[in-house]
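Q&A log
Question type: sequence-to-structure
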Amino acid sequence: MACRVGITTDPKRRKAEWAARHPDMRNWEVIAGPIPRAEAQSIEDAQALIYGCEAHHGGDEPDVPGAGWYVYKFDY
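Response status: OK
Response body:
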């Protein structure tokens, strides 16, 4: 079973985007947040290493000063 860890400022939107790409997505969970981006990135990196999940350092969202970031994980 493959897994993915990522960061986002909008977990609901991100979950919908991933569900569209991975119809077999399951076990979605928000691991942490809202927290600063640097902290979220650190948690993403650690969780990807621990669980052997795919992750792309930096996410695909711009860094918005003061935004709350969330770390998520799911299986597919």
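Response note: The chain has a mean pLDDT of 93.
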